[in-house]
Amino acid sequence: MSGTQEMTFSDVASHNSKKDLFVVIHDKVYDATKFVDEHPGGEEVLLDVGGQDATEAFEDVGHSDEAREILDGLKTGDLKRMPGDPEPHAPAPSQGSDAQPGGSSDGTGMGVMFYALVLLGGGLAFGAYKYLQAQSAETK
User: Is residue 124's pLDDT more than 90?
Assistant: First the structure.
């Protein structure tokens, strides 16, 4: 298992089946073939990103430190970007020792903001409904 092998996107793209599955995460190439049946999220999750850049999907889930250690054991090489290759899907995780488990908190902040806005909108809609209901009852 050589960690210095360079592969292009076209090399990785041909490894997209359950019996031969490579994924790219943060410009590193991983052979996930032996891990497909063990993946806690199911094999379909890996097969959906097989032969592709899976960085965004990997980071969106917020994998544990243990999952990242398993990933290190699957590394087969580095991605050699060529002209015309797709751009990276997500920025590299922060490498500080005080980094929060699960990577960057940027996505979490946006998620919390989204849910706060949904709750606020729901509260306003409910208030408007009750107000209109009260107005309707007064006119009868």
Answer: yes
